[in-house]
Amino acid sequence: MxxxxxxxxxxxxxxxxxxxxxxxxxxxxxxxxxxxAGRCPSKRALRDGQIVDLIVAERTRQKLAARxxxxxxxxxxxxxxxxxxxxxxxxxxxxxxxVGALRRKKIRTTVPDDTAERPEDLVDRQFWASRPDQLWxxxxxYVATWAGTVYVAFIFDxxxxxxxxxxxxxRMKTDLVLDALExxxxxxxxxxxxxxxxLVHHTxxxxxxxxxxxxxxxxxxxxxxxxxxxxxSCAASEDAFAGQVGFPxxx
Length: 251
Fold this sequence. Notes:
The protein is of the alpha/beta class. Helix content is 42%, strand content 15%. The C terminus is likely disordered.
């Protein structure tokens, strides 16, 4: 509180600031401020300032250290010979609003199902097309957010390098993949493309619960039954999607 008043006293004055703070439930009298401001810093405050300087120096000097949590920073400082308690580092981290990088459990979005029937692979990793709507590559990824994991299914046109259809949801369901394909077909229809004959819809060989029939079902529902393409990997879609949208490629 004292630091807050000190930082603004030249602009607003001590008494008006104290009056506003008191009015909003943070009671502080001008006399209290002057008493605290004139008091010498405690040994703990001085020691905390030194530790903060050490941490800031580490976070500035090495990019990786800026992602350290309190435990790793405590270990780093101890390794450098600084005698500091872990609880002190944790308290300073909380006071400064510092947090380390959160390690989340890796989610598998591609789980091959050896029992599922797979269409013939018509692409054979030759991710090249001479015209739009000749080869679509479908894949499935996820995005970690503070609210939880969001799963994204998308359809990528190899020729135009454009995502022509996508859907996002908080659960991995077959309908999510189907909706992405339907969105791609709707997108092309809005652009005046009604005839998708000859289109190869290329998917990976994964399954996740209800996904084990999705590659075949996607094709049978909307295309002509002769151009289904299963595959070993959707590396092309992963590279393109990660590069264009910035999401982590998975699957």
